[in-house]
Task: inverse folding
């Protein structure tokens, strides 16, 4: 297995995510906390996190990032305190036997979209009528480990324990939280892992970081050079979760490309695995609300000049934007790993006895062995016939 690259202390892309979507949307009739109260709460939690934050700051990996931290101002420092707090809170929950689910992925692989879909279902199950702009922001339901304090999530919305977004490698989580992270199915820690065709994820990651100083400091790399340099991080990331799954950790693999082509069926699979009750009408409504066009329109209201999170919502961008030689090299280095992840999905479906709906006819033009991973369905069928 490829050796995982060293991670900085703030996560693989924590310093680059913007806060345009952090606006707080509360249930109708609920009272907003006062600004003063929010500041006092932040100070209290920051004080509790001071010691672990200082410990994080003293690590060599963090010290190496100090020029970056100073160049980007207060926001990375705040995120460092948030992460220290979240590490302490998650460790506490795990030690108490409470359910923790890491919603994990390499950057730009559909993590945010999945959180929006799940949050819509959770709200509907709570009796809240939903639209694209949810009454409670998804960040308050499934917090981002790097940006949102876990202790301040909206616990009035019922969820199957704590769900938290992360882009960390499995090994990093295990080093931070110990053996509970690697529990077998049935334990109180599990991982919903979302993966995407690597060339598409890398191109999207490039566009997210294009306006950031860190990318410009990479000797002015163009899109092809950036993707060729960063593919090793994609390899290390998915390899860590494949290895964890092979060691019987509770990892559920979800293909972003399959989610694009058949969102209702794949959302149902995730809900079954999470143990979340649902009806077909709830799933249909969530998918309709969270169509990419709707999310892009909602995001555009507050986007200003920031790079969008919901950029395109389609597959094949790697083939369209990269040189053919670049795509070939990325595929040479990743095809085996992508096939292994697809095989995990096929096993999950065979074990559960579920099968996603047929692909819509419009998806047939895509190469079946790559984007969309249509061969997953064929593998599932073969496994059932054995």
Result:
């Amino acid at each position: 297995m490829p050796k995982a690259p060293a991670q900085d202390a703030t996560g693989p892309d924590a310093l680059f995510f913007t806060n345009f979507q952090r606006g707080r949307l509360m249930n109708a009739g609920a009272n907003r906390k006062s600004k003063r109260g929010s500041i006092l709460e932040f100070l209290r939690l920051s004080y509790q996190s001071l010691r672990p934050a200082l410990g994080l700051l003293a690590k060599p990996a963090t010290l190496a990032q100090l020029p970056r931290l100073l160049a980007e101002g207060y926001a990375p420092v705040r995120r460092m305190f948030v992460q220290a707090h979240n590490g302490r809170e998650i460790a506490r929950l795990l030690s108490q036997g409470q359910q923790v689910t890491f919603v994990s992925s390499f950057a730009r692989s559909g993590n945010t979209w999945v959180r929006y879909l799940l949050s819509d279902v959770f709200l509907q199950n709570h009796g809240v009528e939903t639209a694209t702009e949810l009454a409670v922001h998804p960040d308050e339901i499934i917090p981002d480990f790097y940006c949102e304090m876990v202790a301040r999530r909206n616990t009035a919305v019922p969820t199957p324990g704590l769900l938290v977004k992360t882009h960390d490698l499995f090994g990093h989580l295990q080093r931070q939280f110990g053996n509970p992270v690697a529990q077998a199915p049935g334990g109180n820690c599990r991982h919903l892992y979302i993966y995407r065709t690597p060339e598409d994820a890398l191109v999207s990651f490039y566009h997210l970081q294009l306006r950031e100083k860190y990318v410009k400091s990479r000797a002015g790399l163009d899109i092809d050079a950036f993707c060729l340099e960063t593919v090793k991080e994609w390899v290390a990331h998915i390899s860590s979760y494949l290895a964890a799954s092979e060691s019987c950790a509770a990892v559920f693999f979800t293909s972003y490309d399959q989610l694009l082509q058949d969102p209702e069926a794949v959302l149902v699979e995730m809900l079954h695995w999470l143990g979340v009750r649902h009806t077909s009408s709830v799933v249909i409504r969530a998918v309709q609300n969270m169509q990419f066009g709707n999310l892009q329109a909602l995001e555009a209201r507050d986007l200003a000049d920031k790079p969008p999170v919901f950029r395109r919502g389609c597959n094949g961008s790697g083939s369209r934007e990269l040189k053919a030689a670049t795509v070939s090299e990325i595929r040479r280095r990743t095809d085996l790993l992508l096939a292994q992840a697809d095989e995990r999905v096929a096993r999950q479906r065979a074990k559960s006895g579920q099968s996603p709906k047929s692909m819509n006819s419009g998806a047939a033009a895509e190469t079946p062995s790559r984007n969309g991973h249509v061969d997953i369905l064929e593998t599932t069928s073969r496994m059932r016939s054995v």
Q: What stands out?
A: DSSP finds 18 helices and four strands in the chain.
